[in-house]
Each structure stands twice: as C-alpha cells, then as structure tokens.
Amino acid sequence: MGSAERDAGARVLVVDAANVVGSVPDGWWRDRAGAARRLHDHLLSAPLPYDRIVLVVEGRARDGVPEGVLPCEDVGTLTTVHAAASGDDEIVVQCRALAGEGASLTLATADHGLIARVEPLGVRIVGPRSVRES
Fold this sequence. Notes:
Layout: H1 3-7, E1 11-16, H2 17-22, H3 32-45, E2 52-57, E3 68-71, E4 77-82, H4 87-100, E5 104-108, H5 112-118, E6 124-126, H6 128-132
Parallel strand pairs: 1-2, 1-5, 2-4, 5-6
Antiparallel strand pairs: 3-4
C-alpha cells in the first residue's frame, strides 16, 4: 500500500516539537535532547484520537530521538522527522504532502507564523498543551 493510500482519510497529528516542549518552562532549554525524548516517549503511549502522529524535531533536540517510524500503544504509528534546518519549514513540507494525500490534518503548535502558513492547507490547529496533557 502506497503512502497516499495509507493516509487518505487518516487522522494525522503533526507536532511542532519545539513549540510543544517550549510551552512549559520546566528547564527544557538545559537539555533539549532530553526534552524531545520525553515528548517522544509521551506520544508513544498517549491516548490521542489520531491514526498517525508526525513529530518534527530540530536543532539539538534531534539528538534525543531517532528518525523513523514506531508503533504506538493507542495510535497507529509515530513518525519522527529530523528537520535539516528550520523546523517550521519542515512542518509545512510535511503538512503539504499529507494534505495532498487526503489526510485529515491537525497541527499542535501556538506559533502564529506557522499557523498562517498551514491554514490554507486546511490544517486544524490545537494548542501545545493539548498534546502534553493527554
């Protein structure tokens, strides 16, 4: 089954890791890789109402989680993507590709500039705490 067939109609959550991690002042700035790992581990077991999660990490946070696809307890899969440069640019690329495949997209972020870039793609927005508190 191709990617387009897999994602047609799928409920996909794209997570802006930097924004979600940064939404709580818990000392994440001292250990960005560790903060990304904690978010990644949380997403693997969180009871979220999605078929698939795409976690986009950037900068030093990339050292905390490997790139790739893992099965989740309550969600089909968690795909971790390492942004080569700007995390926001990679999130837009991911959203554009998934929207083109017919996925029902939700983005977890509070970044107004990023929201403005993905809203024309029909992406639903949820705040970062909705992911952290699940």
